[in-house]
Sequence to fold (133 residues):
Amino acid sequence: MDWTLVRATQFHELVAGLFAPMARFGVLVLPGMPLRTVASAEVAVAVAVAVADAAGGPALRARVEVAGPETADVRDLARQWRSVTGSRARIVPLVLPGAVGRAVRSGALTTERPDVTGTTTFAAWLEERELRD
Fold:
């Protein structure tokens, strides 16, 4: 059976979408963990290329990883979000215990060697989004 799996790190849109509701309560409760967020539009292009490649030849029978151009702690991303949006929400550290906590702190939600690397940083994406809104 032929297959190709495209795996992406967290989207910029997801991360910003998590900050906004928490900020309404004046806090951003966040664990310390590295993320390598990517613009969903860049993932869509990678998926389209993978589909076109599979249609034109044999499937890779492998995973294609897509990630953003930089790795940053989620709390640093929150600081960038606050700066661009003008939010005054306080960042409150959350400690995730156990195996899950160790895994996310060690980078389980990111990748070191993506096959496709996006070019739009979280900060640039935020600035562009604010200009549109």
In short: The chain has one domain: 4-132. The mean pLDDT is 92. Residues 40-56 form the longest helix (17 residues).
